[in-house]
Amino acid sequence: MTTQRSAVLPGGQMAIPAVRETAPLSPGQERLINSEFILPDGRWPAHGQPHRLRPVDTGAVLVNGDLDVDTLQAAVAALIRRQSALRTTFRFPEMLPAAQLVTASGPRPLAVHRIPAANDDIPGDQLRHIASQTPVNPTGRDLFTVQLIRLNGRRHVVILQIHHLISDGWSIGVLYRELSELYNALAERRDPGLAPLPRTFAQVCASMHHDRESTRMTRQLRFWAAQLQGPWPQMQFTATPPGPCNGSTRVDSERVRIPRDLVRDLRAAGQAAGQRGGLAGPILAALAASLYAQTGQPDVRVGTMIANRAHVDVEHLIGYFVNIAVMRIHVGPNLTMERLVASANATVAASLDNQEVPIQDVLQHLRRHCGLADTPLYQVTLALNTMRSQSLTLASLDCTDIDIESSGPRLAPTTIEQRWLLEDHGGELRGTLTYKTGTFTKAGIHTCLRNLDRALHAIMATHRTVADVIGEFEPYGHAGPRLEA
Prior knowledge:
By secondary structure, the chain is of the alpha+beta class. Helices cover 32% and strands 22% of the residues.
């Protein structure tokens, strides 16, 4: 890690003043760029062009009350000073490894827009238009922006946008909590109750880069090689076998909602089944039963986003840490729901103990030494984010999340058939199921959602078998599993 005075990005003459730190990309950032963001021809998608994974996360908060704009501006500035990832940009020189550059914290004025709105109207289309102007390419620009929209004297919308390269789901929770605390401390003329950060995100990235050759990573790699040893049967979601890989395909999405009373029951079921799978264990168990019913494949492998924050000193850092852990769950017709949840819990617990080795290193090892070749290791992904359960909490103000995010036209990697994203919103889980339109019809996806709901409710019926539960599913329109013992 070095300290510089200035840097020039390729493709232009824009200078970055007072670069304070440089660091290699984290393994997660490498994966995002190579597998999710960059198009097959090596370019970043242009504005409005289809992309695989949403590059910029957008949050919008409706604020009712006497918002102090100067205090908000000062709180944003303090957050940017505190969290170095919010002052990061990227350099992608030819023939050299990519790097991230952390700049000094200079003045960054709060963008303010005026959109008159009568009564309780929320101008969603206009807000989405403002948010959609953010470019995707992360070089030479601010990757965290806050915009304020005045609807009238006592009603505002705060739009927060952060590039996915410097932020994961855990980070969004940190961002909302710390921005709230900084605003409230300034408004109440007190010191903020935020502990000092032991390391910067750039320093953590440098450690991650160095640790890939450590004995700890070697041990974890051995665990995954044993956990994911072949064969690797594919899940067939339709009656027609999949054709040869042909690049990316179009995707669509549907909203998903799991109400808070069911979430509460699922947490309790996970605790009763032992291990430390938390909420992830029961949800993975229900998803595994649903996928078994869809495909007839008892060897269910789900690529699960995992926080990869095993060390206490990164708990309060904003940055992209996420790794992918492949949860392998074996489902059979005579398995009780209690045993299925216990198996999923144990799988999650073991994965947490071995979460640091990058998934790309696991894949490389399996291809070199275990004969994986081009077989997809997983065809379904799950991201479960429970780290931001509430909106901004600003003193004397009523704050409510509003949904203005639009995914835009999307592409999907050939091997991923379904992407499940679930986030905690006040105790309930909300999110999306993104799916390949070449594999699933909209009606078929609605069937998937209804059957998953049945599986989630069945988690509490501990002594029922998988065969009993999926016997009550709606038909998927193609051959399901053989349920004989």
